[in-house]
Every structure is written in structure tokens, then in C-alpha cells.
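Quick one: Serine/threonine-protein kinase BSK1-like TPR repeats domain-containing protein from Aegilops tauschii subsp. strangulata, C-alpha cells please.
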Amino acid sequence: PGSSTPHRPRLPRRWAAQPRLKTPAPPAPHRTAEFSASPASLPPRERERQRDRPDWAMAAAPFVYCAPSDGGRTDENALLMAALHGNLGRLKDIVNSLTRGNGGPSAIFSFNKDGVDVLHGAACGGHLEVCKYLVEELGGDVNAPGIGSVALGATPFMMSAQSGDVPTVKYFLDHGGDLMKADDKGRTILHHAVSAGCCKVTEFLLSKGVPVDIDCGRGPPLFMAATNEQDKTLKILLDHHANPNIIISGATTPLLSALIYRSLKCMKLLIKAGADVNCKASTMTLLVFATMQGGYTNFIKFLLKAGADPNIPDDLGRLPIELAALRDCKEEVEMLLPLTTPIPTVPNWSIEGVISHVKNEDKKPMEQRHRERRQRLLKSQADTAFKLKEYKMASECYGLAIDHGESATLYANRSVCKLLLGDGEGSLSDALRCRMLRPDWAKACYRQAAAHMLLKVPSSLPVCPLMTYSIIDTDL
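--- reply ---
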């Protein structure tokens, strides 16, 4: 939406229930419903409407999956699927069947999949006629939060933003939709629209007075756009004067997030809008992060052309060229060399000379107090990123902290980050290392069992239902 050329936007990675398991499709005979409705089964007006919609908009709700029926919930599953597909006639038949002798029709809103009920499903699909029926005839609440691991407090009004259908969003707004309400992850309806790449809905919401930098504790919409690589909605926000230098929890910026998720388009737009290419207000510069982490060679070249200063060191006084040399990356050292002020202690200011000097210096033991201070700083950054549900950023920061000294806590925390990112093998590897360091630690066993569950590997380790993989340890 928002473009004359239909496109398939990438769905927000942070909306799926965590961990995001790769659930195999069940065998055809046991499926309760399919995700694609037959055009012939839809009302004429709906068929005409869907012909004009891009392919991605025809998909079902991005994070709603109906598992195979357990036998007693067939009608409830069919109810949700009818709402997702916009099949009003089928929906009415099921409502009548479910509520006959079992209370009023409004009872159907008690049926849900992990917090996603029938109104959430219809709203997410942008099925206006179904939404009207559910709200006006059955009394559906457009601001009712979905309580569950999938909905995470999102309301039908918020989910309507994902449809890209402005009339549906407008209908919910006219019927009391709360523009300022946030879900459990601190996202308003504007956050939902921006993260899904829905340009027209984003413009509509901004025209209704939603603050462009609205922040309910987890970052503004601009941060969500950068994190989800949505350059088109990011541009809309910048055109409405969103602050490109906003600091999130004192640790990151939209530009740093765009770098972490390798969105060059978002980075170009942010820098053009005035974003500080050095991120001086953040805990580290972009060049420091890129050269320390590795794998960002092309981005380093872009940052240097954009005016990034290669003479700003990290908290231990190391310049980006030294960090690149530590990784033995000659290409990055070659790019940084002519722009970096020569280091007095390096006798041979050349590519080979810098790499040789840095490697020799690295063999010297770092003072313990410097190592511990650096490790605490990196862990603090990782903990902050985890609380923001930026699991990739947190995982990378925990990894950098581990480089300054192994810790069972750091491995346990990185294990849960990888688990939430769907990396079962990485999560298991960290869990096993954690158990080696603290064999009898209950949380280490739990991390291993959780990784086994993700990998579908039989495990003799019990998973305590009172523990949760979404808790990290704050002490080293």
C-alpha cells in the first residue's frame, strides 16, 4: 500500500510469538481450514475488492496459525478462519451454530487463538463488512486487548493497521478506536502500521493527529521502521519531521538499528534527514560497532563516504582501524587507513604495519579492571536491548561481552536470545557451554531443554512450568 506498484513487504519480525517455531504444515486430511479462501466462496463485492488488492494483502493474518483440530474445537477454528477470509455468510452460520442454546452471540468473542479472537482476525484481514457485523450486531469492542502469547495486548483497532485498508481503519476509529493505546510491547496503532509497511494507513493516522514520535516505553515508530527495514514508512515519518537522532533507552538510535539489521535504504534516508552519522549520544559509534562486529565492510565504506569520523575510539580507546585489524580484515583497514590520524605508537603506518602492531598489542594482557568495566558495559547494553525485545542486538552484545571473559550468565542470556530468534542450534550450543561452567545450575538445564524443544530433540531434562525463557539474569 502507498505505492502504485504492488509489493510484498516484509512482516515485522518482532510480532511473532517468541520463540518463533517453524511449524510444519499438517497433513491435508487433518487441516481444519486453509489460509486462502476460494474466490468463488466470497461475496461478489468482496471478490471485486480483493482483485484490486496486492498479493500480500490477500494473505491471512501474519501471525495467526490454526493448528490441527483437537476434535472439540472445529467450529471455533472455522469461526476464526471465516473471519480471516472475510466470509461473512459462513461466519454468520457458525455464530448461529455456536450460540444456539449457549447464550448470546457476543459469547463468540471468548473464542480465541492465543488472544486473537474473531474481531482481531477480521480486522487484520481488512474485511470491513465482517467488522461491521461483529461490532454493530454482536457488540465487539474495537479496543479489547488480546490476552495471549500471540496478540500480546494488541486490539482489533491496532490489527486493522496491518491490513493496509484505510476504510477499515477509519471505521474502527469512528467507532471509538484509541489512537494512543499501546499493547504489551509498547506499540500503538501507528507502530503497527509503520512496522507492517502500510504507507497509506501511516499517512492516514498521522493526518488524525497521532504524534509522529509517540513513545510508550519501547521506542518511537521511526525506531520500529528502521528495525523492520521499512524504508517507505520510515520516509513518511521523516517527511512529518520525526526526530532521526532520538535515543532509545540511552543505548541505541534508529540509525544504529538500521545498521544492525543491514538496511542501507533506511540508513540513507536517516542520514539525509540529519541523523548523526557518528551517533555520539549513543554508547558506541557506528564505525566502532561495524568494525568490532565484522561482516559490515560495505556499510563501513558507505559510512565513511557519509562523513563518519574514524578517529572516535571505543570505551577502551581503540580506534575502528584497530578493531578491523584485530579481525585481520585488510579491506577495512585499507579503507580506514588514509582517513585515520596516524597512531604514534605504530611505527609502520601501513596496512601490514597496523595489523602487525595491533596483533602484538592484543597479546598483552588487558588490565583486569578494564576488562571487567568493558564487560559490564556490554552486558548493560545487551540487557537494555533484550528489554526492548531487540533480541538480535542483545545477542550480539552478549557475544561481545563473552569475548571479555566467559560467564555462565552471559551464555544463558545469549542462549535465550537465540531461542527467541529461532536459532535452535545456537541456543543449544550456548546452553551446553553454560552447563559446562555451572553444571548444577537449574537455569542452565532449562535453557538446554528449551533448545531441545525448539529443535524437536527428545530431552531428559524437565522444563519447569514456573520458569520462563523470557527472563534474563542481570548479574554476571
